[in-house]
Amino acid sequence: MVGAIAMTLMLLASLSCFTWLMIPRMKVLLNLQPEARFDQVGERIKSVIKFAIGQWRMPREPIAGIAHIMIFSGFMVVALGTILHIAHAYAGELVDSFYLNTIPGKLYAFIKDIFEFLVIFGVTYGIWRRLKPKPSRVGRSAEGVFVLFMIMTLMLTDFIAFAGVLIEYKVTNTAWYPGAALAKAVIEPLGEEVALIIAAGAYWIHCFAVLLFLNFLPLGKHFHVITGIPNVFFRDLNPYGQVPKMEIDLEDEDPSFGMRSTADLSWKMVLDTYSCTECGRCTVYCPTVLTEKPLAHRALNLSIKDAVYDDLEVLTTGEDEQRAELPDLVSEGRISAETIWACTTCGSCEQECPVFIENVPRIIQMRQHKVMMEGDISPELQRAFQGMENNSNPWGIGFDKRDEWAEGLEVPRLADWTSDSEASEENPPLLFWVGCAGSFDDRIKKVTQAMVKILKTADVPFAILGKEEGCTGDPARRSGNEYLFQELAATNVEVLNNYGVKKVLTTCPHCLHTIKREYPQFEGNFEVIHHTELIDELIAEGRLNLDQSGGEQSLALHDSCYLGRYHDIYDAPRNVVNAVPGMELIELPRNKSRSVCCGAGGGRFWMEEHIGERINEHRSKEIAEMNSTVVGSNCPFCLTMISDGMKAVGKEEVETLDIAEIVARSIEAAEQQKAPTDLNAAAALGVGAEPAPEVGAAMSAEGVT
């Protein structure tokens, strides 16, 4: 009876305190901006099973990931044991009988003890990571160490508490209880009475620690224990990287665009901050962290959460007028402007996050407010906006020069194809979307021309839009100018739909992403293929004759973020490089999904880097260490950034080439190898041979050439 009363008082106090802590944190979610995250329930349940319960992303860092899986899985298994511990205060004999006299009870006890050993191993590793001389990315977190020691306490006290049961009931066959048997071997020599007192003390320490731990969770980063699984359930199921479409009403007398204050946060954004484990995975491959920029997504999560807690009263009970007076999120003491403008939108942070925190969308929304409401942007970005607005390209070059690169190449235009009376509107040719870089940048024009060479060699019917093509708007959308993006997108979609375009080829991953993932928001639904994918297909089909006598070269391949992380295209570029005779592929230490951004994404190509090391130079240093003869790229912006970076690090002699250029060169070399053979064969047949001198003179006299 005393035990039952004590447990009841502990439960009442603990649950009351927990409720008091949780209500304001949950209430604020109900008072923030709505967000539709209740669709596709089946898919969301699958996500929970795979990523939350199955810990699918954890082994991306094998040792730390496995240690976390040990701790998490142990907690899941031990949860029933914790419930039984609490029930023991009310029905001790019944609980003991379950463990000692039933097969399910014995089996659970055995599994529980094994998992508790795994938890102890994982916790030991976690403590070492935080306390070793040079701590890991998680840092010397006092909270983390405290929680790990508390978890260790729970496991050890569980062993000791059940050891008391084994001693009390004189259990000799302890094979089902390996952990408790070990504890029994330690305390039993002290005498039965002392051993039972120790076991009883361990029992109450265990129960008290569990309830204390429950109330500690909402106070720090371990809040993710409660919110992590719901956060995975509510993850974004839209096509990855798709920026939400903003509804723009030009007739609105009091417009508000983007995110100004905490009142503009959606409930999911705040749930993200609750779920941040502060593990630091988002920082490992983040280009801004690696180059000492102000942006670190872990710190940004904390800044947003702190701002929400500071504004909690107004957010939960305040009127609209009070919400309108809340301080700006991007302001002194909260989040600096340099922080939100540093992001390259490479997606590394989101791919590494085990609980699917969405970092990029909120940064873009903060940029939207700065751009569309305050006009607070850098001069160089303003020039890029003006260029897109006036000439539909960020360079600001006259739109009538968009297809000058094609002069003399006999490249068909889609307008010419539609004017052909024999053309079928049901089967338009492949549209080669050249893009702004491929049309206006002198270096990238060579990539465009190389792709034309490949298409013609393989007899692939294609056409371009020419002067009718416009900027996709990618740099505008990701740097916050949503209005300009929507204008560009709507115009392009109208042109493409009018021509009945079905399949689009592009050499630019940013164009690929925008047309494939974001134009459907404007009724533009097209099949989009990257040029490395098409080249891979053409080589596999034997439609490209590559040079078989070329010299040996080594190529270090840089993966584009928007091709790799955003579209999971890694194999095609590698297949192409491996198919080129004499070309040896060298993998960079940070490659594929762990590739480091070149620094151009998110509109950063049009902005200067004033803080820290230049991102392209940071990446180029790694490439330079490979001592390759060529750097391979599959994105026009990566090509430019890496080319500049290699020069900056003193590696001008290393050639930077697009995959298309490498293949086009091999095709041309094969043609040159074949040409002398063809001439020799012609000469043997008398075709193309020079006439005898006397015959030549007679022909000249007759005016014959």
Helix and strand layout, with pairings?
Layout (H helix, E strand, L loop, with lengths): L1 H29 L10 H13 L8 H27 L3 H10 L1 H29 L10 H27 L9 H10 L4 H25 L7 H10 L33 H9 L5 H4 L2 H4 L6 H14 L1 H6 L2 H5 L12 H6 L5 H5 L7 H14 L5 H13 L22 H6 L10 E4 L1 H6 L1 H16 L4 E2 L10 H5 L3 H18 L3 E4 L2 H10 L8 E4 H10 L12 E5 L3 H4 L6 H9 L3 E5 L27 H10 L5 E4 L2 H13 L6 E4 H26 L8 H9 L4
Parallel strand pairs: 1-2, 1-3, 3-4, 5-6, 5-7, 7-8
Describe this structure in words.
Helix content is 57%, strand content 5%. Strands 2-1-3-4 form a 4-stranded parallel β-sheet. Strand 3, helix 25 and strand 4 form a beta-alpha-beta unit. Helix 4 crosses helix 5. The C terminus is likely disordered.
Structure in a nutshell:
The protein is mainly α and 705 residues long. The protein has helices at residues 2-30, 41-53, 62-88, 92-101, 103-131, 142-168, 178-187, 192-216, 224-233, 267-275, 281-284, 287-290, 297-310, 312-317, 320-324, 337-342, 348-352, 360-373, 379-391, 414-419, 435-440, 442-457, 474-478, 482-499, 509-518, 531-540, 561-564, 571-579, 615-624, 636-648, 659-684, 693-701; strands at 430-433, 462-463, 503-506, 527-530, 553-557, 583-587, 630-633, 655-658. The strands form two sheets. The protein has a four-stranded parallel sheet. A four-stranded parallel sheet has the order 6-5-7-8, with helices on both faces.
How far the N terminus sits from the C terminus, by CA atoms, comes to 121 Å
Mean pLDDT rating: 92
Percentage of residues in strands:
under 5%
Number of helices: 32
State the strand order across the main sheet. Answer: 2-1-3-4
How many beta strands in the DSSP annotation? 8
